[in-house]
User: Which sequence fits this backbone?
């Protein structure tokens, strides 16, 4: 899903960079306001884990790849889509600069797809569906977040003229529909594991409440 340099023309890059920078601005505000010191180790561990799972790429025709993303996991654990934008941006910047995974000029597009679309889809779908069951909501939110990010990636490259529309949507959609099932399963396992081991940092029951509200119970 990482778009390399040269796949999108310069004016199109600027649009995604602008969206990514605005999202990063609000993400930094979220971090300054809501990311507590005791949560930082968990944030770092999730960043390392997502860095690792994104390294497991499956080649997709026409120069892109399929892999897990992890944005919904971060948005759910920290109860904010901006947490996903911030964490995915850090991961994508390191991957682009050090490992050449994703282009530098395409960084805005990659942050937009995986951080913004992935994070916001994961967060708002989980929030909308959790009343019907928290685990099913995690599954749907995590699957949809990666699927829609992949579809957006395909559409962007089609607009750029470097990806066929119908075949591209089929390939990106099919690959990520399957990968999304794996991501959903892993997201459920990680969510339950963190809740079990560190209920002081994350609990589905207290999801969305401020730390002070939880600690005061």
Assistant:
């Amino acid at each position: 899903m990482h778009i390399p340099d040269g796949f999108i023309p310069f004016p199109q890059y600027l649009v995604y960079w602008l969206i990514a920078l605005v999202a990063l601005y609000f993400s930094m505000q979220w971090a300054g306001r809501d990311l507590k010191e005791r949560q930082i180790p968990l944030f770092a561990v999730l960043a390392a884990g997502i860095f690792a799972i994104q390294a497991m790429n499956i080649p997709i025709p026409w120069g892109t790849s399929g892999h897990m993303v992890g944005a919904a996991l971060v948005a759910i654990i920290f109860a904010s889509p901006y947490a996903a934008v911030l964490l995915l941006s850090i991961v994508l910047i390191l991957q682009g600069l050090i490992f050449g995974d994703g282009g530098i000029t395409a960084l805005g597009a990659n942050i937009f797809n995986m951080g913004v679309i992935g994070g916001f889809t994961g967060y708002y779908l989980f929030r909308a569906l959790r009343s019907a069951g928290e685990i099913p909501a995690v599954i749907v939110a995590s699957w949809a977040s990666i699927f829609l990010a992949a579809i957006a990636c395909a559409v962007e490259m089609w607009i750029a003229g470097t990806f066929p529309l119908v075949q591209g949507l089929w390939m990106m959609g099919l690959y990520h529909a399957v990968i999304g099932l794996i991501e959903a399963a892993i997201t459920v396992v990680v969510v339950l594991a963190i809740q079990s081991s560190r209920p002081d940092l994350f609990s589905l029951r207290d999801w969305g409440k401020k730390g002070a509200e939880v600690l005061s119970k």
Observations:
- The radius of gyration is 17 Å.
- The first helix runs from residue 10 to 34.
- The mean pLDDT is 92.
- Residues 4 and 102 are 5 Å apart (CA to CA).
